[in-house]
Amino acid sequence: MNKGILKFKDGKEFMGVLFGAPVSSPVIAEAVFNTGTPGYQEILTDPSYKGQIVILTSPMIGNYGIIDISDNESSDIKATALVVKKLYRGKIAPGRISLDAFLKKHSITGFEEADTRAMTIHIRKHGAMNAVIFTEEMRKDAEKLLSSYPSTSQIDLIKTVAVKESVINPATSSAREKARKEAEMNIAVIDYGIKESILDNLYKRNARLSVFNKEAGSKEILEAKPDLVFLSNGPGDPESLGRSIETIKDLIGKVPLCGICLGHQLITLALGAKTYKMKFGHHGANQPVKDVFTGRTFVTSQNHIFATDENTLPSGVSVWMRNANDSSVEALISPALKIKSVQFHPEGAPGPLDGEWIFDEFLELAK
Question: What class of enzyme is it (predicted)?
């Protein structure tokens, strides 16, 4: 049993046991909590968790192991580390591997036998902040690193999770290839760390995709003659993406725009409005959202710590949906500008599929 320590930037410490990949040096990132129970494989491989230590609030994690690569939201684990109350170490179904083995395979450290309830309460009370995982022998180095480590706003997290070169009609799986051949619409995707399940939802609606990196300009994107521009999810602070914001500004009014999560925040900024960092954000698969026009309420999966400041929205842009818990902005709409964007994840993965109809709403913009 290899004992470890998790220390928050404000000095609060928690003792635990290390699992997964061995800790050879302090492991540091912003700590957030997620209230989901199943779906840890999708959470770990979600590019939006790049640069974060994920604390899962459920009392036991790992019960069904890791299914197969098709459930991954990207090619590998993107979270910096995983913290759980208790790691399941019993039998799992044939053909699967344990969560412990999955972390070892991807050189990711785990931290268990920890008071995750107290950690969650600490974050709720004091806000998300950097934290470091280390052994007692590393304490001096860990505390030095913790005192000087930058915030997520100062780190380019997208460069390691998104495409580096823009790709017109990228090579795809056989199922996606069939959808592409039957495509009824051209969609330009600006990739900030897109999830595989989002791509699947676009392909299964018979879309032909061209994928652009965050440095792409409006001229390059418009040369692909898209019917719709989709802005993906991704990690980090939207205000750090100045070039993308200028590109989106130039696209507004020239082509329909839609976005999810970070993409929604970038649309907010491109419209001239502001975003703000929430105290601890929304991370989980049980966030209720209400359509302010129809009164329809449904449950969503979410993973964000930045949000739209509705008091700064320009005329002609309306709040489409709100979070039923705290009334924060969950979606924007502008019929005149042909814009729709959502803060939540309509694809779930993990989580409910109640919001999958949002993809159909996006595609309606181009008709």
Answer: ligase
- Please tell me the predicted confidence (pLDDT) of residue 165: 80
347 catalytic per annotation = yes
**Residue-level pLDDT at 180:** 66
pLDDT tens-digit map of 180-197 = 677 789 999 999 999 999
Q: In this predicted model, what pLDDT tens digit does every residue of 50-76 receive, in sequence order?
A: 999 999 999 999 999 998 787 899 999
Q: Does 106 lie in the same domain as 172? A: no
Domain assignment present for residue 154? The answer is no
Q: Count how many domains the chain has.
A: 2
Among residues 212, 210, 213, 203, which one has the least CA distance to residue 225? 210
Asked about 261 being catalytic, the answer comes back as: yes
SS3 at position 155: coil
Phi, psi of 178 (to 5 degrees): -60, -45
Q: Do 226 and 315 belong to one domain?
A: yes
Catalytic hit among 30, 73, 261, 282: 261
Same domain, 180 and 137: no
142 and 241 part of one domain: no
Give the pLDDT confidence score for residue 260 in this predicted structure: 99
CB hemisphere CA count around 203 (13 angstroms): 21
314 shares its domain with 360 = yes
Calpha distance 68→56 (Å, rounded):
21
Could you tell me the pLDDT band of residue 169, with boundaries at 50, 70 and 90? low
The answer to whether 220 is a known catalytic residue is no
Does 62 appear as a known binding residue? no
* Cβ atoms 339, 256 nearer than 8 A: yes
- Give me the mean pLDDT over the 15-43 stretch: 96
**265 labelled ligand-binding:** yes
Q: Does 145 belong to an annotated binding site?
A: no
* Same domain for 234 and 133: no
